[in-house]
Design goal:
single chain; mainly beta; Jelly Rolls; five-stranded antiparallel beta sheet; four-stranded antiparallel beta sheet; 11 strands; globular
Length: 146
């Protein structure tokens, strides 16, 4: 018998710390003669994964009940579609380019279409173990057929 996964509830305090926009404004990098350090996320999180996607690939078509994630594009471009979960409104499309980061809170339907071969980091609230991920994700029909 598998272990029951208990996901921590999302608190109002946590919600207040989330970015308000899909595209996250990055802080200035710290630069000196050695190079640069680019701050990305300074929040408690439990996962960081590196994802590669081929041109034309589609990912997501789901929402998370408690998880949130930041996606920082290292190479490539993504058309990111999103709308509130349970809504029948047309999803908003945002293009995320190399060097940009987007944020997806819980209870937001989202889909990603990769315009070219793309590599990105996903930094998330919850563990990315398969059991935890599956306990939190709800798959939905595609948001767009592009």
């Amino acid at each position: 018998m598998s272990e029951k996964i208990i996901l921590p509830p999302v608190t109002d305090e946590e919600r207040k710390s989330w970015p308000e926009d899909v595209i996250v404004a990055l802080l200035d990098a710290y630069k000196d003669d050695r190079g640069a350090i680019q701050p990305l996320v300074d929040m408690d999180m439990k996962s960081c994964v590196l994802i590669t996607s081929k041109k034309g690939a589609v990912r997501a078509n789901h929402y998370h009940t408690t998880d949130w994630h930041f996606c920082y594009v290292l190479e490539g471009e993504i058309d990111y579609y999103h709308r509130p979960t349970g809504s029948d409104q047309e999803p908003e499309k945002v293009r995320i380019k190399k060097g940009e980061m987007c944020f997806t809170p819980p209870m937001v339907d989202h889909q990603m279409i990769f315009l070219e071969e793309t590599t990105f980091l996903t930094l998330g609230r919850n563990s990315r173990s398969q059991a935890v991920y599956e306990a939190d994700v709800v798959r939905i029909p595609p948001l767009t057929s592009e």
